[in-house]
Design a protein that fits this description.
The chain is an alpha+beta fold. It has 51 helices and 33 strands. The protein is flat, with a radius of gyration of 61 Å.
């Protein structure tokens, strides 16, 4: 590629092959097949079948490697030459004390190397200046004309390049006795491509390549601190006359001072003294003694040194042996003029200690230079020093696959500024070659190359004992395309090498990143190579065919001779690239390809190849050799011998090892080995003859294969010897091959002897065995040809043919066309024998008869001809002829029977059975079969349509029609098919009509369905839909009978029975008039139940309506009661009537319900008394000494209530957290309007608290319950909740009567009057504070007005589901806080008791109070009794304080919500009607429900206290409770009322 051209033109693509599965199974065979095409390109790509995807077997977590460092612009040969040139110039100017700064011309860095080359090509500097051709130089450097660039180039050349070129030519060297340049160390012998590690020479630790990126900047000089810290710099400072590393800058800046320092230790010289270092003294014998200088001299000169222009450095003089002091002094004279005057202008070279006047130099120097200075002789020696061998250095960091991938992806994404998978391959390719050709940009990447798979594990599954393989992994572990298997395949030459040659027989692994490259190279021994990309981004390849290998070498040597002069085997080091465009421009054919993941790339023998990675990937590669490689391998050894390059293995040893066991070789391999062995034997004869002519007759046998390779290598050409070698008795350390017998040593021929592996008689014997193996195929082929073509007129037996095929397999003959013909003949003959045996056995009766072997008559004749034409003799051919004769006789008999139709069915069936036994399909047998099938079908149709037969299904009819289509046609068959079709059409029509009746939304009445069923009865076919319709009609009739029975009974029907009937009736596909009536009754009953649930049940109540209406029979067990309540709260308890012990059948009997209710009342009362006794014994949580025990109370939250805020239930006496339950509101119980109760009437404050376990419902007023009873009376349905509500109402009315009787007694009336007087007295007292603004109450109290008793209505108990909820927040929230504070201030003024209640009066009132609290009904008498009991005891200040604190906290938290909900409630206009006493009419109404109570109820028994008070009205209906007979559906639990 010409300089200045930046566009990379991709070479043409290499061949790509996609083998089929059959081709893919033989790897080396397929490669040999494609070799004629692919070899012309040097490389090719192979895409495996799509489903060949080997698993990645590397242990990712344990895989750790250290990559190589690659600087891209050092890889390309021409760029490296330019960089080396720049390094030489930089070193030259660095020695001179200057730093190289490359100028920019036309906005690009000047190519100094190209400038120098072009100047030389144009005739040199003087000629160009003389002819004024600098413009032409600029033109050749691709600079635009007309900008006076030639003058600028001349200026730069004179300033930078010309002095260097002058030093290179030696024009400025003086004519004096100069010492030749002594290399500090001899060139070490380099062994390229060693077997353990195929890596080039490691770079010197003193190389300057790493500093190329800083070329445009001067190197910083080390400070004193750096020198002290660095031991290497310290060594150089002490023992060297000058620094060993360029640019250290450790010399004195004044050269004259340097000279004086060296002379300061001499006593006869005057001058400044240096610090005491070493003094050289002369002693006898020429030895020198080193002793410290006098400290006095140092102290005396210290003052003088302080006035010197520059301080004396610490650099010491180098000790010189065998020089006297006089000679030492005389050496400080100018090497050019031989004078020592003018010391101030005398320069001392830092390299050789020679002296030069600055005016004697060429060109002369105007002044003493500062820093390091070298004389022209040293400069020339340094610049002409041969460069060190180039190689890659190892990175210092160890990576895992994950860490390397993260680094690689980050680098690529940052470099291209886009996601890694979106970077086009073309862009990466152009950028790679741009960077490689650039001397300005120094991009460094890392490449994990040549990683040993034996140490780190292969990417393919490997069969070893380390881990167990799955069946899939086992398949890939044995595949020939597995790179661990391919080198040792049977057809591969390398399988005959015992050693595991790393990289050749054992794969190497490669972990790449973007721009990481592999340079131009050919494989060791010019072998094949195969590379598989396991995963990752593509790998770009470039290849050159083997025919152009020498051309490529010539072009690279021509373009970069400097590199090959220093490294003749540079192309074997894998460290040099050259742009494919450059090679193509010089006539080298180059191809390229992008290897993607899952693809193979094959390189052919002596095919140069290189490439780079597009990104992070993982590849694996190995070498292999086939039979066609052997000539190339021999030529490679000769090539190595000329280059004096070491071999990886001995080619002669490989050939002889294969020749020793020819029977194990593949036939093609044996032929190739025979040719190579013949050439090798001829050459060995010639070489040994030359040895005899030289006079060497001594010889001894040597087993070279047992010697290490380094002990049998020719000292001249480095070839590994095997057949023979020349050695010397006097020089045992070396030997030579017979091609270099004159280069062994200078000893006499009589002392030299031949070391040989085989004699010249043994070699032809080995060659003969190979020939026999190679020619054995021809002998065998002649035998097979004669046998297959029957050339001698005799057919061979099967055993003879099998013997020939077995011989080919044992001797491993190639899979030729002749062998394939033999195999095909054997397969065909064996198939014929098997078929003949089956045919004969099919005619023999018995258990071993083969009935499945059937062939036609034509096939039988063709089979007989096939057996006759085969080239082998088979005795089964006679049996086949006999079968043919039998078949022909049967055919004639069958034709006669068919001609005389109608024949008897028995005769036809017997003929058919005989034909089946023949084992051959005869055409007449098929006609017989059709006649038999026709008769059978007609008989089956006749039986199906017979009147006495069982009705067939539609499927049977359709099956007969389908079968009739396949029988032989006849008039009888056509008639039967027509009858079947007509019958099937009619049946399907009626079936469709029945289906519509069953599925229609509009149900038909029973009469319609009955008519359809009656008409379909005449069809002689079983119709499933008609049958279903008939069953539905029967169910509808039974349902109507049940409805009539239940409706016409003596009692109202139960709701459960009606719901069961409705559910059954809805499922019937029959239109029923009675169903609508039943649905209306059920809907009405559910509506009443829902209304009752809303009346009684709290919001989100866990109880059912029936449970609330019935007494709590287990009230005595606190744990049971609490656990039931908790279960219901959690939704775990679903039983309605378990408490009363009622079953579903008992709920249908009203007598059972009433009896259970009455028993439950008594159990409830006994249980609550027991519970009160138990809870009263529990410790109070308000006491300070309360300790945790099993007898403590448990709140509904599951915790033990303790401290302030705990409340005790007035009914069960248990303790609860005030924040966990609904508590009464004090402000709601006070009435501000006149005649309001005074605030100090504390007994009227609403402080009564019932826990949620005791107050299970809303407790509506009795008037509301009576309205529900009136609605129940109008229902034609009976509900269990109705009986329970009636019992509850009677219980409440009975308790109300007893309560009024107690309140009307003389003692209690006097107490009530006293309370009234006390209230009036308190009200008349003046109050200093305004009364609190409390919610208003009803204007009048009927009980107070009528009876003179204070029985205010307890609103909080009526809707007790959420007493302290925001919905119940009283109006006037703004003053609520002040009201609560006012009440709190009144607490100290509360005194009591205000009444004295005798025990005779208190006990009945407390019992009444207990029974009233058990009622789920709100009664005013209950509140009056509670006020009397409260006035008879001291005020409960602790409870009042607790209630006030809870109300304060609740009002503070729900102030905003309460206002909004209060406004919403006002808009709804909900009001509570004032209470009124139960009138006689209401009582009569309640008593009117007695017509629903059967005789025998305990409420109607004689002597019952309630019976005189409730008259029994006349029953509006004479019906009695029904007794269900048929339908007894399950009890339907009433739905919970929605809130």
């Amino acid at each position: 590629m010409e300089p200045g051209s930046d566009d990379f033109l991709p070479p043409p693509e290499c061949p790509v092959f996609e083998p089929s599965w059959a081709e893919f199974r033989d790897p080396l065979g397929y490669i040999a097949k494609i070799r004629p095409i692919a070899e012309k390109s040097g490389i090719c790509k192979i895409r495996p079948p799509a489903d060949w995807q080997p698993p990645f077997a590397v242990e990712v977590d344990n895989f750790r490697f250290t990559p190589r460092i690659q600087r891209l612009n050092e890889l390309e040969a021409q760029t490296r030459v330019k960089l080396n040139y720049l390094d030489q110039i930089a070193k030259f100017w660095e020695i001179q004390g200057s730093s190289l700064k490359i100028p920019n011309v036309e906005r690009r860095i000047l190519d100094l190397y190209s400038l120098s080359k072009i100047v030389v090509e144009e005739g040199g500097y003087e000629a160009i200046c003389k002819d004024r051709r600098w413009a032409r130089v600029a033109q050749r450097l691709n600079y635009p004309p007309g900008k006076n660039i030639g003058s600028l180039l001349r200026s730069h050349y004179e300033r930078i390049v010309y002095p260097y070129e002058m030093y290179q030519s030696g024009a400025n060297l003086v004519q004096c006795n100069t010492r030749p340049f002594d290399n500090e160390e001899k060139d070490k012998e380099y062994k390229p491509h060693s077997i353990p590690l195929r890596q080039s020479v490691q770079p010197s630790k003193f190389n300057s390549y790493g500093r190329r990126a800083k070329r445009l900047q001067p190197d910083p000089e080390p400070t004193e601190e750096d020198i002290e810290k660095n031991p290497e710099l310290k060594k150089l400072q002490i023992y060297g006359a000058g620094p060993k590393m360029m640019g250290l800058g450790l010399m004195a800046k004044d050269k004259t001072l340097r000279k004086k320092e060296l002379l300061c230790s001499l006593p006869d010289k005057e001058g400044p003294e240096c610090p005491p270092t070493v003094v050289v003294k002369e002693e006898s014998g020429g030895d020198m003694k080193v002793e410290p200088a006098s400290p006095k001299t140092y102290l005396e000169s210290k003052e003088e040194l302080s006035h010197s222009p520059e301080p004396c450095t610490k650099m010491t003089m180098r000790l010189r042996r065998n020089h006297s002091n006089a000679q030492f002094i005389e050496s400080y004279v100018c090497r050019m003029c031989s004078r020592g005057d003018e010391d101030d202008k005398l320069l001392l070279c830092d390299g050789c200690d020679d002296n030069y006047h600055i005016f004697c130099l060429l060109p002369p120097l105007p002044e003493i230079p500062k820093g390091v200075w070298r004389c022209p002789k040293c400069v020339m020696a340094e610049c002409k020093r041969p460069p060190e061998a180039f190689g890659f250095e190892q990175a210092t960091r160890e990576y895992t696959l994950q860490s390397f991938g993260e680094m690689a992806d980050t680098f690529k994404a940052d470099y291209f500024n886009m996601p890694v998978h979106m970077v086009p391959t073309e862009l990466v390719e152009k950028e790679f070659w741009r960077l490689v050709n650039s001397i300005e940009e120094d991009v460094t990447v890392e490449y994990g190359a040549d990683i040993h798979s034996k140490e780190f594990g292969s990417g393919f599954p490997v069969s070893d004992s380390k881990r167990h393989l799955t069946p899939e992994e086992e398949e890939y572990a044995t595949s020939g395309w597995n790179l661990n298997v391919m080198p040792v395949l049977e057809q591969s030459v390398l399988c005959h090498i015992n050693a595991d040659i790393s990289g050749m027989k054992v794969p190497w692994l490669y972990v790449g990143m973007v721009f990481s490259a592999f340079c131009w190279h050919i494989e060791d021994h010019w072998s094949y190579s195969i590379n598989y990309l396991h995963w990752g981004e593509p790998k770009t390849w470039y290849g050159v065919p083997s025919l152009a290998a020498e051309h490529l070498e010539e072009v690279m040597k021509k373009l970069t001779p400097e590199l090959f002069d220093s490294q003749p085997d540079l192309l074997h080091q894998l460290v040099t690239l050259m742009n494919p465009n450059t090679l193509m421009s010089h006539g080298v054919p180059v191809v390229r390809t992008n290897q993607c993941a899952g693809e193979f790339v094959i390189t052919f023998p002596r095919a140069y190849h290189s490439g780079f990675n597009q990104g992070y990937n993982f590849a694996e590669a190995v070498n292999f050799c086939t039979a066609d490689w052997l000539p190339a391998g021999r030529q490679c050894i000769e090539h190595y011998r000329r280059l004096r390059r070491y071999c990886v293995f001995s080619h002669e040893e490989l050939i002889c090892k294969m020749a020793a066991c020819p029977e194990k070789l593949d036939l093609n391999l044996a032929a190739a080995v025979h040719k190579e062995m013949f050439i090798m034997v001829q050459e060995e004869r010639r070489l040994r003859k030359a040895l005899l002519e030289k006079g060497i007759t001594e010889a001894e046998r040597e087993a070279f294969e047992l010697l290490p390779d380094d002990e049998r290598q020719c000292i001249k050409c480095k070839t590994t010897c095997f057949l023979s070698a020349l050695a010397c008795y006097d020089c045992p350390d070396g030997l030579v091959c017979l091609s270099h017998i004159n280069d062994l040593c200078k000893c006499s021929s009589s002392r030299q002897y031949l070391r040989y592996r085989y004699t010249l008689d043994e070699l032809p014997a080995m060659l003969h065995k190979l020939k026999v193996r190679a020619e054995s195929f021809d002998t065998w082929a002649n035998k097979v040809r004669v046998a297959l073509e029957v050339e001698d007129g005799r057919k061979r037996s099967l055993e003879e043919l099998r013997a020939l095929e077995s011989e080919a397999r044992e001797r491993r003959f190639p899979n030729s066309e002749l062998l394939q013909r033999l195999k095909n003949c054997l397969s065909e003959a064996e198939a014929c024998v098997s078929r003949a045996l089956g045919l004969v056995s099919g005619q023999e009766p018995g258990p071993h008869r083969v009935a499945d072997v059937q062939m036609t008559l034509a096939e039988l004749r063709a089979f007989l001809d096939q057996m006759s034409n085969l080239p082998c003799a088979m005795h089964q051919i006679g049996d086949v002829k006999g079968v043919l004769e039998q078949v022909e006789a049967y055919q004639a008999e069958a034709r006669e029977a068919l001609a005389s139709l109608p024949s008897s069915p028995g005769l036809l069936q017997s003929l058919l059975e005989r034909g089946r036994q023949l084992g051959v399909e005869v055409p007449e047998a098929q006609q017989l079969q059709r006649q038999v099938e026709q008769a059978r079908w007609l008989d089956e149709v006749k039986r199906t349509l017979a009147p006495s037969a069982r009705r067939g299904t539609l499927a049977v009819m359709r099956g007969l029609l389908v079968a009739g289509a396949s029988v032989a046609p006849s008039p009888a068959v056509d008639k039967a098919r027509a009858e079947l079709q007509e019958l099937l059409t009619i049946a399907e029509r009626w079936e469709e009509k029945a289906h519509l009746c069953l599925e229609a939304r509009q149900k038909h009445p029973p009469a319609t369905l009955e008519a359809i069923i009656h008409e379909a009865e005449n069809i002689p076919v079983h119709l499933p839909n008609i049958q279903a319709l008939k069953e539905a009609l029967a169910k509808a009739r039974a349902w109507i009978a049940d409805v009539d029975e239940i409706q016409n009974g003596d009692h109202y029907p139960c709701l459960d029975d009606l719901e069961g009937l409705v559910a059954v009736g809805r499922d019937l596909p029959v239109g029923l008039e009675e169903l609508r009536q039943l649905e209306l009754q059920v809907l009405t009953a559910h509506s009443w139940r829902e209304k009752a649930s809303k009346t009684f049940l709290k919001k989100n109540s866990c109880y059912t309506l029936l449970e609330v209406l019935c007494p709590c029979a287990d009230a005595g067990s606190d744990s049971t009661k609490r656990s039931r309540w908790m279960e219901k709260e959690l939704g775990l308890y679903k039983s309605d009537t378990e408490l009363l012990g009622l079953s579903a059948q008992d709920l249908r009997d009203p007598g059972s319900v009433i009896v259970a209710f009455k028993e439950g009342e008594q159990k409830e009362k006994e249980g609550i008394l027991q519970l009160r006794r138990t809870n009263s014994a529990k410790p109070s949580p308000l006491a300070s000494s309360t300790t945790a025990s099993s007898a403590n109370s448990i709140c509904v939250c599951g915790q033990v209530p303790a401290g302030a805020g705990a409340l005790r239930c007035d009914l069960c006496q248990d303790w609860f957290h005030g924040r966990c339950v609904s508590v009464p509101r004090l402000l709601n119980s006070l009435r501000p309007s006149p005649p309001s109760s005074p605030l100090l009437a504390w007994w009227e404050w609403d402080t009564k608290f019932l826990c949620p376990l005791c107050m299970r419902s809303r407790r509506p007023r009795l008037e509301t319950i009576l309205a529900l009873l009136v609605a129940l009376q109008r229902l034609p349905v009976r509900l269990p909740e109705g009986e329970a509500l009636q019992c509850l109402t009677e219980r409440a009315i009975s308790w109300q009567g007893r309560a009024r009787q107690a309140l009307a007694s003389e003692d209690v009336s006097a107490l009530l009057g006293r309370l009234t007087e006390l209230r009036q007295r308190l009200q008349a007292e003046p109050r200093p504070e305004e009364p609190p603004t409390l919610p208003s109450a009803p204007a009048s109290d009927p009980l107070r007005e009528g009876g003179g008793k204070d029985m205010p209505k307890a609103q909080g108990l009526e809707n007790g589901d959420s007493v302290t909820s925001p919905e119940k927040v009283a109006p006037g929230e703004g003053s609520g806080k002040r009201d609560l504070e006012l009440l709190s201030s009144l607490l100290p003024q509360l005194t009591g008791p205000v009444l004295e209640l005798p025990e005779a009066t208190r006990a009945p009132l407390e019992e009444l109070m207990l029974e009233g609290d058990l009622l789920e009904v709100t009664l005013d008498e209950n509140h009056s009794i509670w006020q009397l009991l409260q006035a008879g005891q001291p005020p409960d200040l602790e409870r009042i304080r607790t209630l006030l604190e809870l109300e304060k906290a609740e009002r503070h938290g729900s102030r905003g919500r309460g206002r909004a909900l209060e406004r919403r409630r006002r808009r709804k206009g909900r009001t509570v009607s004032p209470p009124s006493p139960v009138s006689g009419a209401a009582a009569g109404l309640a008593g009117g429900l007695w017509n629903r109570v059967p005789p025998g109820s305990p409420y109607l028994e004689a002597g019952h206290p309630e019976s005189p008070h409730i008259p029994k009205p006349v029953s509006p209906s004479p019906r009695r409770w029904p007794c269900t007979s048929r339908l007894t559906p399950a009890v339907v639990c009433p739905p919970q009322a929605p809130e």
